[in-house]
Each structure stands twice: as C-alpha cells, then as structure tokens.
Amino acid sequence: MTTPTPPSSPSPPVRGRRRAPSRIERAAGRAAALQRPRVLLALLLLLALTCVMLLDGYLRAEVGGDQRVRTGASASDVPDEILDGGPILTFRGGQATTVSVPDKTIALTFDDGPNPTWTPQVLEILEKYDVPGTFFLVGSMVSRYPGIVEDMVEQGNEVGIHTFTHVDLSYQSGSRVTREIEQTQLALAGAAGITTTLFRAPYSSQTDAIDNYSWPVYEKLGEDGYTSVFIDTDSDDWKRPGVANIVKWATPEEDEGASVLFHDAGGERAQTIEALPKYIEKMKAEGYTFTTISGVMAEQDAQGRTTQGQATQAQATQGQAALGQQPVDAGTGDHLQAAHHQATGTTLYEGKALIAAVAVAEWTVPALSVGLMVVGVAVMGRFAMMLVLARRHHRQRNRRRFSWGPPVTGPVSVVVPAYNEKECIEATLRSLARSTHPIEVIVVDDGSTDGTADIAESLGLPGVRVVRQANAGKPAALNNGVRHARCDIVVMMDGDTVFEPDTVRHLVQPFADPGVGAVAGNAKVGNRRTLIGAWQHIEYVMGFNLDRRMYDLLRCMPTIPGAIGAFRREAVLQVGGMSEDTLAEDTDITIALHRAGWRVVYQEHARAWTEAPGSLKQLWSQRYRWSYGTMQALWKHRGSLTDKGPSGRFGRVGMPLVVLFQVVTPVFAPLIDVFTAYSMIFIDFRAALLAWLAVLGVQLVCAAYAFRLDREKYRYLLMLPLQQLAYRQMMYLVLIHSCVTALTGGRLRWQKLKRTGEVGTPAGTG
C-alpha cells in the first residue's frame, strides 16, 4: 500500500527557470566547504602537541640526549704548549694561544646553570660581596629560565656557552656541534638580548685534558671566533664533600691566579651556597681580586699584550658578524663583559621566538601530564564501573523471576526511514515479515532516487505500507512515520538493519512497566568479516552495549540506537517528536525523554544486525556525525544541569558521565598513546611497553567479559591490539575534528552512507 504525503510533495519546476537550492542543499554546500579546513586544523593541533612534547623532551635531554663522556683518549695531536698552557684558549690570527690568569687574581666561573633554586642565591652572594662571575650556561636551561639570565647580565656578570643540551661534543658530528652553539646563542639572545664569544665544553677541566677527539672541536670554534675556557682549580663542589673541602680545593697555590670552577646547577648545591661566601672572604683577606674571563684578557692586554688583544677582538668581531650579531662599542661597553655582543636582526627575533615556544612547552607539558593522570583515572574508573554494573545488570535481568510485568502482546508499529536503500530494503522488510510479534511496517521513503519505494512495494509483504515524501532528512521521515503509526508502541529501525524473528517481541516487553518510555535494543555489526567491520564489532560489543548496561542501572541512558529502538508514541509526541536541531536525533530524543520523566532501559535480548561502514572514509563520516551530534544534544539540553526533578537528575548524573566518558576522556585519551610512544622512544622502552600492555590487558578483560555477556565468539579479540594501535587513533581524530567543528560553529546535514546489502540474515554474520 502506498500513502503519499501531499504537503511535502515538491511542486513542478517552472520551465526555463533554474530551481533554487533547498535549505538542506545549501547547508550541505556550506558544510562541505568547511570540512577540509577543520580536518587540517585538527591534525595541526595534534602536530602542535607532538612538537611541544618533542621540544620539552629536547630541553630535558630526553630527546637527542647523549650521556657518553670520553675518557683516556690520546692527546698526541694536541700541541704541547696548549696542554701545558693557561686556562684560556684563543686562536689569535689563526694561531692557538693560551692565556693564564694573573697572580693574585681569581676568575670565578660557574657551570651548568641557570637553576631557579641555586643560581639566584649565587647571584645574591656575588652582589653582596661586589664580585663578578662568569657563568657558562646550558642553552636549554637558559630558554627555561630567561629571567635569571637577564638579571645575571644586568648585575655585571659575564656569560658563556656550555652547549644547549650538555653533551660531550667530541662524540658529536660537526652539524650537531654547530646546532648546540647556535641554539644556545639564540637562547641568550631571547633571554638577555646578547650573544657571547666564550665557550666551555661540558665535562672539560684543565687544558691537559684536551685529547685528539676534542681538539678539532676547539679548533673549529676558534675559527668561528670563540674563546674556550678551562680551569686551573676545581672546587669539586658537585661531589658535596663538605664546605671546608670546597673552600680548600678552590684555593690556588702560592698566590697564583686561577680560573676556579663552581657549579650553580646540576644537582643539590646547598654546600656550594654555604661555601661561596667563606671562599670570597678568605681570598679577599689574602689580597686576591676577582674578575671575569674578559677581565683577565683585558688585564693581560694592559700588561703589554695589546697587539694580541686587538687580534683577538678582531677575530671575535668577525665570528659574531658571521652569526648576525652586533659587537658592543668598546668605548661604552664594560670590559668585564667584553665577550658580550648585542643580538640584532633575525638572531634577536628567533631568540625571542624560542623563549616563547619554550614557555608554551613549559606550561603545556605539565598541564598535559596532569590531564594524563585525570584521563588515566577516568578510563580505569570507567572500566571498573562497566564491569561491576554490567555484571549486576546481567544478573538482574536474567534471573528466572525477573519480569517487566504482564507480557506485552499487542501489535506495534515499525517505522523504517529509507533514503536510497535499494541494496538493503528487501532484506530488512523480509526479516520483519518473519517477526513472531504482531506488527505493522511503515516504510517512509525520504525522496529516494534509486527506486527504494518501488522495491518495497513490489515485495507485496502483508502489513507493509510505503509513505513517500520529499527529501527532508531522517528526523522528518521518522516523525512522518510516527504520524502514520496506528499502534501505541513504535519501533524505529534503519533501512539497512535486519531483525531476528524474536527481536520485536523482546524489545517491547519492558513497556509492561508504565514508567518506561523507550527501550534501546542490542545493535550488532553484521558485516564483521572485514578488518574494519571486526574493529567496529569489538567497539559495539565492548563500548556501546557494555556502556548501555551501566547507564541503564544508573537510569541515565544517553542514546537509543537508530538501528533498534522502541518508544511509546505518547512519549514521543509529548517531547515534540524527533528534533532537527541536532545531527544525533536519537541522543536528542533520549535525553528529552529523561527530562520529561520517562524511564529509558536497555533490552539485551532484542538483537538487530546492522551494516557498519565498509571504508575508512564512510566510517569517518558516520562517527563524525555521531560525535558532533552528541555534542549538539548535550549543549541543547544543558539546562538540565540546574533543573529539578527527573530532568535535574539526568543533568547532574547522566550529563556529567556522558561528557566525561564520551567527550572529555576520548578527546584527551590520545595523551596516553602519545606519552607512551614518547616514553618508548626517548625514555624507557621496557617500562613504557609494560605499562601499555597492562592497560591493554585491562581492556582485554573488559572486552572478554562483554563478549561473554553477549555470547560472542572470542576470536575477534585477537584484533584488539591492532584496534588500539590504528582504529582507536582514528576515532580520536574524529572526535577532535568534531570538537573543532563545534568550537568554530559549523553545521552538518544528515549524511548517507554507501550500502552493499551484505547483511542479509543474522545467520550470515558469522
């Protein structure tokens, strides 16, 4: 029987006039134009997160870190005059030369800073005693604590380069050496607006420790205008030998001058802080003066080495010019900071950009770590809740004495909205014809162009009516079906879904309880032979159906699946029918029913076999619509958070759970995978792998229990690890894409997936 719907029939187009696009067509055009930028934006967000993590790892020497330290190498290629020379190595006029610290003079140097705890205390001591210092700074620390470096320079101290990640340069390639130096220069430029010509290699000591591997590094840096600084006296404060020993070991012998090494970072430095004032007081009492490395160079120049000093300055200027830096005017610059040069041009701006990027990373990564903990707790809590409540639900509903009330035997209406379902409509209707429960079937053809309505009519099945309407979308088709329904209970299903003979009978039994307004059935993936189908099968059984058991007991079921759901016609009309306000009309009406005081339950024995998307593109399209529609529905019903009665109960119980488990947790769940991959590659592969396997084990237990409840075959669980590696990541991207769309105010239309008609009978699903 065919029942046309005149009000919705399109009027014939006027000859010679182009038909104006409909509202849906205009919305579809706008949505299509906006999708690609939003996908790119979602991918860019993930790329930005990855870059931030890599930057933070690089700053902490987790990415690209190299802990190797060379010892015992030959020094046969190093000139003897260098090995036996002073602690300052320059290449004046291309010739290697060392400079010693004058007698009764201390060049106080500090390595490994800045440190937010110890460096400010060192600076306070130096300022108190009016003593300058030379700080050899690690570039990664400079970028993390730029304010300390700025104060250090303004106080009159001198700074030098100690590489960016504190690696032994003798093991590194030429490009890595250049990168370590240039990145530290950029950090100094961004922090204090200066660059420097001073350099001290990590793990270096006196010049006699230079070997055949490190000598080429010093030569190359010398050619670039850098002065390499070593030590005469080492306080060994890093060993924490006690204050007295630190002072003793830092004291030069027989009034000799010395380049003295302390540390203001790299570990606990309380003994250094306590020893430093005592050391300064002692050395001043013995007639020593304190200066910087540039001060030593200036003093040597004043003692008759002016020519060599000019050559050194010219060489340094040449090296800085090659790096795009401007030397400070000798007439106005402080001779104690002569190694400093003003950063200009791209060096300055790139340095500030580096500092800004590091600031973002320093804030973002700890925040993400906290988010990771929250997500981890939420995920494990969800698993625990699902297991406990699903078990309770199963035992409660499968007791011999359990009953919803008197058996429901009256006829029901089955509404089948269909749009271009020629591949599936016959199997759908024939499965309904085998129903053991009395039904009438209303096929609402939503303007199909493939002859769907004709196929439905040609079958000649008893009790099947076909209602034709102009294409208006699924909600309109469902509402039209409800209007034509003759029974008090309306079952809604998709045009690609197949029911078992007992499905309708099981589905309507909960309506024996007059408080039940709707029932969610058990949707099954019929085309599960493919990899994508198997992944969705696991998701349906573990995620959707296990979730519904939990939500049923909590009385806050968020969604009745479009593939199989039953409603009291009275309840549907009370809430205004299927709304077109959202893309998830099933979620929308489910929440509306909760707010109206109706109970929504899950009937596990009412099974429907649906055709899941068969390609990644179709899957993305479907899940994008689902997740975005869910967000729309939650936003639409946000008023339930402050309501009283049943509406308020859902708002304060169901709404937070749905937001937490279906939006927030999935959005941030990629953090688990990103941090796991990061840890495997850069930190501890074994520990990270064991942690990942532990989480996978928990998921496997949940999945196995869900399969047991649904009496599914366990062999599909063999695909769970691969699902976690590939399929889940795609679902995360879809959800992030949906969030971006929601935040940018996008709109979508109901999308049609390509069907194959593969789901013919439940028995054929394997």
UniProtKB/TrEMBL annotation:
Q: Which UniProt keywords apply?
A: Glycosyltransferase, Membrane, Transferase, Transmembrane, Transmembrane helix
> Which Gene3D superfamilies would you find in this protein's record?
Glycoside hydrolase/deacetylase (3.20.20.370), Spore Coat Polysaccharide Biosynthesis Protein SpsA, Chain A (3.90.550.10)
Q: Where is the NodB homology domain?
A: 104-291
Which residue ranges have biased composition labelled Pro residues? 1-13
Where in the sequence is the signal peptide annotated?
A: none
Name the protein family. Answer: Belongs to the glycosyltransferase 2 family.
Asked whether the UniProt record includes RNA-binding among its keywords, one would answer no
Name the InterPro entries on file.
Glyco_hydro/deAcase_b/a-brl (IPR011330), NODB_dom (IPR002509), Nucleotide-diphossugar_trans (IPR029044)
The record's listing under CDD domains reads:
CESA_like
Q: Name one Pfam family in it.
A: Glyco_tranf_2_3
Compositional bias, Low complexity, is annotated for 301-326
Q: Where is this region: Disordered?
A: 1-21, 301-339
What is the protein name stated in its UniProt record? Bifunctional polysaccharide deacetylase/glycosyltransferase family 2 protein
Q: Is-annotated flag, keyword Transmembrane?
A: yes
Q: Where are the transmembrane segments?
A: 367-390, 657-683, 689-709
